[in-house]
Specification:
3 helices; 410 residues; six-stranded antiparallel sheet; single chain; 21 strands; five-stranded antiparallel sheet; alpha+beta; 30% strand
């Protein structure tokens, strides 16, 4: 009898155990799948970033400050506002600045974004990464004091796919998602704003988030009726008719193309190649002036950028187009080098064909020999003041294309 019971358990137990095992595997797979979906949802934007995305932990937001049209473009401007934050967060500190802003965009809109300005000045440090669906505006370099009120404007071409903000952000009129990064890039609060809301005027008060509305004021008695108007004055003596008002001023021309007018990785922290912070100027033979920058290296970079140790192909200077014809020669470490003065699609001086693989402690002095009137940094630079944006470029066809941009002065 015992043998029969054992035999029956053996026969029935195998299918039961198999069924239980199948259920356990299915539940585990479901949990793993749910976990992957949750992970993708919470870390999808901004991509490839290990940072605090909680909006309540950071003081900064973007406010849509202006929408306008100029010939060929729709222009959308955003101002950084400080609304306060959760004081217990590491991202809510007195000295927190703003390094970059990323927008979650439609990859098909890459050809639509043509220019970016920062505080109404052309800004070259931006990148449209179609693979990640991200528009990055970098190298803002704003401190806690200068960040509030900073204005970023996007110029969308009227001849491309995405001619308005709704199409750029989500392909329709849904909300637009963005992230604001601090200098350490460990804080990236993610927030949204509606793309179909008209922008406020410049003096419109921004109501801080997370603040309860003020209680209604108590009822007051109605004001007394206004006094009767004074009697009408006697009609004035006839005068000649007033001249017609002047014609309205034409809209301002669009800003010049951004430097450099290409899609590349522009952030200085993306590469171990670097530039000294100053430009030197020295008299040279023949009444020329040697304007020099020092290319150096550093120890750290963003390992996710793909630009840590690229082969240096060229150095570009953003310059005034009116300086064409004043470039006489270029040298690298005292030896003559290939150079060109480009006016289109953006004005720049290029020192090319460097072919320098990255080496630790590498040092290059790149000089351009200029004649008057463009033989000073102030006269040569197009950004105003005694500064010139300078870019370090990887070889053509490299993946990714690297072009860390520095703004140098003397």
């Amino acid at each position: 009898m015992a043998w029969k019971l054992s035999r029956a358990f053996t026969v029935l137990g195998v299918p039961v155990l198999a069924l239980l095992l199948l259920l356990i595997v299915s539940v585990a797979a479901l949990d793993a799948s749910s976990g992957r979906r949750l992970l993708q949802t919470t870390t999808e934007f901004p991509p490839n970033c290990n940072c605090d995305r909680n909006a309540t932990n950071s003081p900064y937001r973007l406010a849509l400050s202006n929408m306008s049209t100029i010939p060929g473009f729709s222009v959308y401007c955003f101002k950084i506002v400080d609304i306060g934050c959760n004081s217990t967060s590491k991202c809510c500190v007195e000295n927190q600045g703003v390094m970059k802003v990323e927008y979650n965009v439609e990859p098909s809109c890459k050809s639509s974004v043509k220019r970016v300005t920062l505080d109404r000045v052309p800004h070259g440090a931006w990148e449209f990464n179609a693979a990640l669906g991200t528009l990055r505006v970098t190298s803002l370099n704003k401190t806690a004091k200068t960040a509030p009120g900073t204005e970023i404007c996007l110029f969308l071409s009227n001849r491309a796919n995405c001619t308005n903000l709704g199409a750029l952000c989500s392909g329709n009129d849904g909300p637009c998602q963005y992230a604001i990064f601090d200098s350490g890039r460990d804080c990236c609060p993610v927030q949204t704003f509606d793309t179909d809301v008209q922008p406020p005027p410049d003096n419109f008060p921004i109501v801080p988030a997370f603040r309860q509305p003020d209680p209604p004021s108590p009822s007051l008695p109605p004001p007394p009726p206004p006094p009767p108007p004074p009697p009408s004055p006697l009609p004035p003596s006839p005068f000649p008719p007033s001249p017609s008002p002047p014609s309205p001023s034409p809209p301002p021309p669009p800003p010049p193309p951004a430097f450099p007018n290409c899609t590349c990785v522009r952030e200085p922290e993306a590469s171990r190649w670097s530039l000294s912070s100053t430009i030197s100027t020295e008299p040279a033979d023949g009444g020329l002036t040697s304007i020099c920058v020092n290319v150096t290296t550093k120890d750290d970079c963003d390992a996710m950028s793909g630009c840590c140790a690229f082969t240096l192909h060229k150095v570009e200077f953003e310059v005034e187009p009116t300086c064409a014809g004043t470039l006489i020669a270029a040298t690298v470490n005292g030896l003559r080098a290939s150079r060109t003065f480009q006016t289109r699609p953006y004005p720049a001086i290029k020192v090319t064909n460097l072919a320098r693989p990255f080496k630790v402690n590498e040092w290059l002095q790149v000089c351009i020999l200029m004649r008057a009137p463009c033989n000073t940094v102030a006269a040569l630079g197009s950004s105003g003041g005694n500064t010139i944006p300078v870019g370090l470029f990887s070889s053509p066809g490299s993946t990714p294309i690297c072009c860390p941009i520095y703004t140098l002065g003397n």
